[in-house]
Automatic annotation (TrEMBL):
Molecular-function annotations in GO: ATP-dependent diacylglycerol kinase activity
Stated name of the protein: Diacylglycerol kinase
Cofactor(s) this protein cannot do without: Mg(2+)
Source lineage: Bacteria, Bacillati, Actinomycetota, Actinomycetes, Streptosporangiales
Matches recorded under SUPFAM superfamilies: NAD kinase/diacylglycerol kinase-like (SSF111331)
């Protein structure tokens, strides 16, 4: 089997030595070529061309941003070619998609799980989410957010460019700061789901393809705990932004069972094939922890059995 190993050199949880160990282990089982990303969307380009270059498997080492690029590249495989299978190894600060798949958070242990899957022929197909708008036509693996969390992602990316290291503590501190400053207090979002009445005057809206939404360190944060790769899309939205109520909701999201489907201060939707979120004025928007910019209207669609995963 020919495999392309896409490595993000900025991966925060690996060292050159550990990457060499991982490459050596994989190369014993497959005909491996290593490609190191050099710029944003480079992983997407490499994955898009993998089938034409004769690869049957694409492996990546990086965070959720790298995973998103690879997935979008693989989903761009020309229809006349066989799309390669995919195996993702954790290299970022959160690795939400990889952890949701049940893989170990240690990249060396995850490599072992992927190799076991290759040897036994164990694989699974997962559904993805797709967004379309005037500016976008992209896939996401675990979440897309309008408002508060996208504002947080935007600020984290700004601080990373200035030299800060992304960490759960950085995300939490920025989220708290934005909340206390009141810059996110705009109830201008509307969620439209076919077959349901539109819900307006929302402060923050999140669409998920699995659970959790994110992690606070090792603790999963679950606003939509019923969300699964095998189902349609789920969504969560805040109808109130009182400090005490939001604190209670966050505490419930971090409990073992996650947030209940119904409650005060929020609304949820479960297992939906499609939905649309619109804003009265442009709001910050993100997918898989990557800030895309300001958006006024985004369409969401569930894409079942979109990708074959190894491990």
């Amino acid at each position: 089997m020919r495999a392309l190993f896409i490595v993000n050199p900025q991966a925060t949880t690996t060292t050159p030595r550990s990457r060499d160990v991982i490459v050596g282990a994989i190369a014993r089982d497959v005909d491996l070529r290593v490609a190191v990303t050099e710029y944003r969307d480079h992983a997407r380009e490499l994955a898009r061309d993998a089938a034409a270059d004769g690869y049957e498997l694409v492996i990546s080492l990086g965070g959720d941003g790298t995973v998103n690029e690879v997935v979008n590249g693989l989903l761009s495989t020309p229809s006349e070619l066989t799309r390669p299978s995919y195996a993702a190894l954790p290299g970022g600060s959160a690795n939400v998609f990889i952890r949701a798949l049940g893989l170990p958070t240690d990249p060396v242990e995850a490599t072992g799980a992927v190799l076991e899957g290759l040897r036994s022929g164990r694989n699974r197909t997962v559904g993805l989410g797709r967004i379309t708008s005037d500016e976008d036509d992209r896939y996401f693996t675990f979440c897309a957010g309008f408002g508060w969390d996208a504002d947080v992602v935007r600020e984290v990316e700004r601080q990373r460019r200035a030299g800060r290291r992304a960490s759960p503590a950085l995300y939490i501190s920025i989220a708290t700061k934005l909340f206390m400053q009141g810059t996110i207090r705009d109830p201008g979002l509307t969620v439209e789901v076919p077959g349901h009445d539109p819900v307006s005057d929302l402060y923050f809206a999140l669409v998920t393809n699995t659970t959790p939404w994110t992690y606070a360190g090792s603790v999963p944060v679950q606003p939509t705990p019923r969300s699964r790769f095998e189902l349609g899309l789920d969504a969560f939205a805040l109808t109130q932004l009182h400090t005490v109520r939001v604190a209670r909701l966050l505490r419930r999201m971090m409990s073992h069972k996650g947030l209940k489907p119904y409650g005060r201060g929020y609304v949820t939707w479960h297992d939906q094939p499609s939905m649309t979120i619109s804003a009265r004025r442009p709001r910050a928007f993100q997918i898989d922890g990557e800030y895309l910019g300001m958006r006024k209207r985004v369409n969401f669609q569930s894409i079942p059995k979109a990708l074959r995963m190894i491990g």
